[in-house]
Design goal:
Layout (H helix, E strand, L loop, with lengths): L9 E7 L6 E2 L4 E6 L4 E5 L4 E6 L6 E3 L5 E4 L6 H14 L4 H10 L18 E2 L11 H10 L7 E2 L8 H6 L5 E6 L2 E6 L14 H16 L12 H13 L6 H15 L11
Antiparallel strand pairs: 1-3, 1-6, 2-5, 3-4, 5-7, 8-9, 10-11
């Protein structure tokens, strides 16, 4: 990959104009490459046969990375590629293991295995003397994400304290009912699931994002505020709390509205991760 501009660190293959097995001459256009400035044509510097294509269309390659191999028909090019890979791996560290390690730690740990035994006393619901639920902050967070009523979960921690493992092992009923002043309310089982999607961006968009991030920390900013009429929200909250088992706050209403807005505008709910 040649350096096509002063600020270029990598290029993205927009399109290959030749395929493996084609004869090429010096000056022939092999591919179109997107840089941080524009899309440019990649010329061949040699005569021969296109023996190997490295990156596919849409993939990025660092400057001086292997794009393709041009040589005599039938030539053994694998040794050249292996030598280059060995050189790169010995002089640089790949960020992929770090990413994989982060993703691995987000998965739930396996449940402890061991011989089944009958305890002398059954686990108790984690409720303290003052009626408050005894649970770790992590257990409360996981229960909220899964939509579980933590007061229905039995704790196996110290003093009946509810811990993360208890929440993960809990199996809620299909629906929970409660009655208030003769009215029966069925609460649906809501299970939240976190997920994300990696979307590669073009070198130009990378540059735009980098410059935008730099401006955030180098340019002065000012912020605007506005007043919102919350009368309807106040009425709605009052009506909900008349029948709800738990107290609904204004924060809950705002979070619900934000979640609904993000479903309509998912591109707002993104994080810039450098690539």
């Amino acid at each position: 990959m040649p350096k096509m501009s002063d600020t270029m660190t990598e290029g993205t293959i927009a399109a290959w104009l030749k395929k493996v097995g084609d004869e090429v001459k010096s000056g022939d256009i092999l591919a179109e490459v997107e840089t941080d400035k524009a899309t440019m044509e990649l010329e061949s510097y040699w005569d021969g046969v296109l023996l190997h294509i490295g990156p596919k269309e849409g993939e990025s390659v660092e400057v001086d990375g292997v794009l393709a191999v041009v040589g005599e028909k039938g030539a053994d090019f694998e040794i050249l590629i292996k030598a280059h890979q060995s050189k790169v791996s010995s002089t640089s560290e790949s960020p992929v293991p770090a990413v994989e390690e982060i993703r691995t730690t987000t998965s739930a740990p396996p449940a402890p295995s061991g011989p089944a035994s009958t305890p002398a006393t059954a686990p108790s619901v984690g409720t303290g003397d003052n009626g408050r639920v005894k649970a770790s902050p992590l257990a409360k967070k996981v229960a909220a994400e899964k939509g579980y009523d933590i007061s229905q979960i039995q704790g196996t921690g110290d003093g009946g304290r509810i811990i993360k493992r208890d929440v993960e092992a809990f199996t809620p009923s299909a629906a929970t009912s409660t009655s208030t002043e003769g009215a029966t309310i069925s609460l649906p089982q809501i299970v939240g699931q976190e997920s994300f999607e990696d979307i590669p961006v073009s070198p130009m968009r990378k540059t735009i994002a980098k410059r935008l991030s730099e401006s955030k920390f180098t340019a002065p900013h000012f912020y605007l505020t506005m007043e919102i009429n919350m009368d309807k929200a106040v009425e709605a909250r009052k009506s909900i709390n008349e029948v709800a088992r738990i107290k609904i706050s204004f924060n809950d209403i705002i979070i619900k509205a934000t979640a609904a807005a993000l479903r309509l505008h998912p591109k707002v709910n993104v994080s810039w991760l450098g690539g």
